[in-house]
């Protein structure tokens, strides 16, 4: 990149920085979503939440199906309206 190009595109630097950060966040999220250990931990936390009465059976089944789809490499179904319980050890 030449000096003139660098000076002319300098106002775009913050936007390029934000785009770079967004790309890194997306890569990390995809990597964590595809990690079987993370998915198993989320399934365990989901089962505990059901056992402790924190969620109802319907919500449990929706989230369980979504997590199992991810674990088996299928595209996930619809995302539930309430977030899943956090994985163990994240408190």
TrEMBL record:
Top-rank taxon, per record: Bacteria
What ranges does the record list as Pro residues composition bias? Answer: 75-91
Which Pfam families does the entry mention?
GvpG (PF05120)
InterPro entries on file: GvpG
* Region (Disordered) location: 71-91
Q: What is this protein called?
A: Gas vesicle protein
What organism is recorded for this protein? Streptomyces wadayamensis
Taxonomic lineage is: Bacteria, Bacillati, Actinomycetota, Actinomycetes, Kitasatosporales
